[in-house]
């Protein structure tokens, strides 16, 4: 049975929390991004899992090699392929496909049911359940935690950081991001660069959300797209949290006071967040008022600022500092 959902938009700290949950709960099955569109290829060729790129020093995909998952592997593959195909229509203009459900429909429910049947206590870290957290919570009687990170560092982490691993020039720019030059590249040049949309499924998620909410904008600016997706995903997750079965936490607060927040999340969820792992949570916060001003102005221009003020007002983006 699913006992916890730990969700968040990409680059908000979900992978490091997957590791903390995995290391803290050896008696539980913990599944990483169970709706990820890349899973079918990994299930077809399980050697792909073994050689997967390590994130934060470990391979999160090895959960799909567990013997408990073997009994549902083929059925899971069949259903996930069907679900992915249904999203291909929306994402046909993009290089990639993502899965972003707005309801716990037949196929999504079946996939989570299969995971639920693999063990007595199952945790999922999905990254894609922003709009269905309450439905999952009701079906499985489990709590959920959704983590939110400020949009400045989300944007940097989705663009500069991946590029810095491959291009030395990007690595240099990452170090000067709070200079006049760095800010200009981040907010004016990078949003127009084609490569900026190559990571973290920015294009398909923007297509899915703009179609779902009938957004009039058809911007080609990558930063605008990220802000639209970041706002809608986090806003609707926030609206489902009721402090009884659903909790929202903020990356900047959690990483600044990790012991306090690990205990709060343990007490809320009934799932162990071992305090020994507080030391691996290091705050990575770009504290720059000029960047904040630019992002706020963009959000206002896009008509998103009222939503953002409800779930994460800009004055809180840099934590308690």
Q: What's the average pLDDT?
A: 92
Neighbour order of strands in the largest sheet: 2-3-1-4-5
Stated plainly, the CATH topology is called Rossmann fold
Record field, number of beta strands: 5
The total tally of domains equals 1
Low-confidence stretches: none
Molecular structure report:
With 321 residues, the protein is an alpha/beta fold. It has one domain: Rossmann fold, CATH 3.40.50. It is built from 16 helices and 5 strands. The longest helix has 19 residues. The N and C termini lie far apart (40 Å).
Q: Which labels suit this protein?
A:
321 residues; 16 helices
Briefly say what this structure is.
With 321 residues, this protein is an alpha/beta fold.
What does the secondary structure layout of this molecule look like, with pairings?
Blueprint: E1 2-8, H1 14-24, E2 29-32, H2 39-44, H3 47-50, H4 67-70, H5 73-88, H6 106-116, E3 122-125, H7 133-140, E4 144-148, H8 151-164, H9 168-175, H10 180-189, H11 202-212, H12 222-240, E5 246-250, H13 251-256, H14 258-269, H15 289-301, H16 305-311
Parallel strand pairs: 1-3, 1-4, 2-3, 4-5
